[in-house]
Amino acid sequence: MAADLRALKSRARSDYPFILEFRTRWSDNDMYQHMNNSIYNFLYDSVINTYLIEHCGLVPSKSPQYGMVVHSHNDYFASIAFPAVAELALRVNRIGSSSVTYEIALFEKGVEGVRSVGEFIQVFVDRETGKPNARGMELGLRAALERILVQAVFSKL
């Protein structure tokens, strides 16, 4: 486990094919004057859905398949606080028949070290049934996710 955390702490922006900036808000800070833990999940979900909408053709209210989060995890290494700009870095570590394992890193703009690294696993389900399709996810969706698939996964979260 310690080796895995060392690998995660050494993540760099170049380890991720997709990066999205997010300006933190005053309301993101908690009483300890740093971004509240719940905001990290909000940001991770936002960068994933931004990628799905902008690069995979997902239309949240109409697409025949959509992703349901079945697992999430986060490791925190350093805090970030308003008025910092967060850089949310995204990659795919694994694609299954209907599931995708994403890794998201949060960096602070202008600061080298990674602040946190999280994992989200989504299962893509059919809108009509709410269950995974026996044929798996749609081919266009799979192809777009494969564009940010990192073949050499440095560690397992």
From TrEMBL:
The keyword Hydrolase applies. SUPFAM superfamilies: Thioesterase/thiol ester dehydrase-isomerase. It comes from Schizothecium vesticola. It holds the Pfam family 4HBT_2. InterPro entries: 4-hydroxybenzoyl-CoA_TE, HotDog_dom_sf. Belongs to the 4-hydroxybenzoyl-CoA thioesterase family. PANTHER family: 4-HYDROXYBENZOYL-COA THIOESTERASE FAMILY MEMBER, NOVEL THIOESTERASE SUPERFAMILY DOMAIN AND SAPOSIN A-TYPE DOMAIN CONTAINING PROTEIN (0610012H03RIK). Coiled coil: none annotated. GO terms for molecular function: fatty acyl-CoA hydrolase activity. The keyword Hydrolase applies. This is HotDog domain-containing protein. Keywords: Hydrolase.
